[in-house]
Structures are given as structure tokens and as C-alpha cells.
Amino acid sequence: MTTAPRREPLAFGDADEVVVALRAAGHRVSRAARTVLAALFAAERPVAAEQIADGLGGDLPALELTSVYRNLERLEQLGVVSHVHVGHSPGLYSLVRDGDPEYIVCDGCGAVVTADHAALEPVRAAVREAFGYEASFTHFPMHGRCAACARRGG
């Protein structure tokens, strides 16, 4: 049985470990890079670059949006960050801790849930069986309705 390709898990436990890896890769670590990392480690769910630039609602210093995108791109190339596209909104960014995270999104309320890779294997198996495709829910998540929205008919 084949599964969707996954990145090897990364061992970044905190922002300081990422800073060490960035420097080892020859990157300069600016105040903006540290702030972006602090935002990603503080966020409980994937966040938009605009939220990071705004300082996560005032918890962190505000940054120029171009600087945030530049740092997110560099962190993504290093394998520290991944992004997901939810609906028609801008990409949302999160840390890659145990391989690329996979997501399920509620079309009713917009909730974004990180799904366990193994729990999605039956879904991948059904898609593989029916269509011959290896499904992945990393860059584009699986959509549906959460239990609360399904009950409300929303």
C-alpha cells in the first residue's frame, strides 16, 4: 500500500533552534525573521502573512508585509514552514513539526483542523481505489462541514 509523499519530520523545538539552522545554512537572521518565527511558534493554528505583519493582534511587533513574505518563503525553503490554501483567501502558514500537516476545512464556519496523517489514510485509500490517485491534503485541504454546521444545516 502506498501513501501520499511526506517530508521527513523536522526537529525544531523552538525558534532558537530554527535560528541556528538558518545561520548554518548561511542566512542572516534579522529582527523581522525572529518576529515571524515568534508568531509561528505562538500561533495555535495556521495564520495568514497579514496576521503576522499585524503582530498577531498586537502581541508582537508589526512588520512590513513584504518582509513577512520574504521570511516565510525562506523558512518554507528550509522546511520549517508550509502553507495551505483555504478557499479564496490568502495562504495560511504553519510550522512543519511532524511532516507536512494535512487539513480539513469547514465550508460553513471556516474552521481549519489539522488532521492526523494516519487518520486520513482510509480516505486516501478510497480515492486510490476509485480514481487511481494519491490524495494529499497539505497544500489544498479537504473541505466539508463540521458537525456543528451540519446540525445547523449551515
From TrEMBL:
A Pfam family that the UniProt record links to this protein: FUR
Record key words, sorted: DNA-binding, Repressor, Transcription, Transcription regulation, Zinc
Family: Belongs to the Fur family.
Stated name of the protein: Transcriptional repressor
Organism: Conexibacter stalactiti
Source taxonomy: Bacteria, Bacillati, Actinomycetota, Thermoleophilia, Solirubrobacterales
